[in-house]
Amino acid sequence: MTTPSVLQFTVKIIDNSHDVPPTQTTDQYTGVTTTQPGYHVDNRTIEVSIKNQPFTPHTNASGNKISLFYWIEFKGHFGDDTDWRIFGYNWPLVPSESEYTIMSATISAYSGNYIPAEASVDCRVKAVTGQ
Q: Labelling 112: which of 21, 32, 86, 91 has CA 20 to 30 A away?
């Protein structure tokens, strides 16, 4: 039976946030000018890249197919051990067929994974085997 080894992974924040400038439009019939205020678009994602390890799926003595899966968890750096939460949407994460498995998720405002821009975050990635 193959046992998962310690994982190699990287975490990076991709920030495509930007400011939309104010705009002015003038009604062609009345000449009235309307100004729409500018605003900030919070467009950040977090990307976790896991180096895949050799693992051969197999069938156990009970006839269950055993595969390798990844769990990615985050918590605020100042939280305690009860604050870890699963990150992303597709769980468990199945390794890709390539050298790396990459998972990304939105962390911008109004996302289910919101993390403030000024946050300090702890991350852990686990390899687990099961059916």
A: 21
